[in-house]
Design brief:
Number of strands: 13
Number of helices: 6
Oligomer: single chain
Largest sheet: 7 strands, mixed, barrel
Structural class: alpha+beta
CATH architecture: Beta Barrel
Distance between the termini: 56 Å
Number of domains: 1
Strand content: 25-35%
Shape: globular
Helix content: 25-40%
CATH class: Mainly Beta
CATH superfamily: PK beta-barrel domain-like
Strand order of the largest sheet: 1-8-7-11-10-9-13
Radius of gyration: 17 Å
């Protein structure tokens, strides 16, 4: 069984090249104390760029140790939990193996995967590499955003189990690739919309679908 390796909370601080607010909550610090998870995320955690992050469909960001192992080898340096701005670091979890709608039972808290993480300049600044957005995209290890189905408190060491989604869905990686592919077929967009994707992603794909039914001028 998987295990909760780290619970990470970020406090607001200034960052170069930040979005309009000029601040970020990406610098997450591990804590050993029990942390409550509400429908909007971890108590005490800062979400500065609320246009692109947070909300009920992207309340908790999860990253797995399997992806960390890959990055440590690729970057040639150790990486502390929370480096990617994730709230929860989970053992033996790998982004590429997950589907939209899969659920993670983390102690008393039940999460549902809703979207892959799309990298931005804030992550590149955090990693000290202006090319990191490109590297993160090419690595296809995005981690996952989750909505909170059952609230509660989590603590380091809590058991984690994966509950596979049985409805119509797409893989996290297919969702990730479709974001960048401006020529995504109509059939794929319809598959995305049939899955329990996050609201921001749903709105974007509904607009893309409309383009197929709009006659060219």
């Amino acid at each position: 069984m998987m295990q909760l390796l780290s619970v990470n909370v970020g406090h607001e601080q200034a960052i170069q090249y930040a979005k309009e607010s000029g601040v970020t909550g990406i610098y997450k610090i591990p804590t050993d104390a029990p942390i409550a998870i509400t429908k909007l995320g971890l108590t005490g955690d800062t979400i500065s760029d609320t246009e692109n992050h947070g909300g009920v469909d992207q309340a908790v960001y999860v990253y797995g140790s399997a992806d960390y192992v890959w990055w440590v080898e690729a970057l040639g340096r150790l990486l502390a939990p929370g480096t990617f701005g994730e709230n929860l670091t989970i053992s033996d979890l790998e982004s590429a193996s997950l589907n939209i709608g899969d659920r993670l039972q983390v102690g008393a808290v039940l999460l549902e995967i809703s979207a892959p993480r799309i990298p931005c300049v804030t992550l590149a600044t955090r990693m000290g590499d202006p090319m990191f957005v490109k590297r993160f995209r090419e690595a296809e290890r995005p981690g996952v955003y989750c909505r909170v189905i059952d609230t509660g408190a989590v603590t380091v060491g809590d058991p984690v189990s994966l509950i596979a989604y049985t409805g119509a869905t797409v893989s996290v990686i297919e969702n990730f690739r479709a974001f960048y592919d401006k020529e995504t077929p109509e059939a794929t967009i319809r598959r995305l919309l049939a899955a329990p994707i996050a609201i921001r992603d749903r709105q974007d794909n509904e607009k893309r679908l409309q383009a197929f039914s709009t006659p060219p001028r």
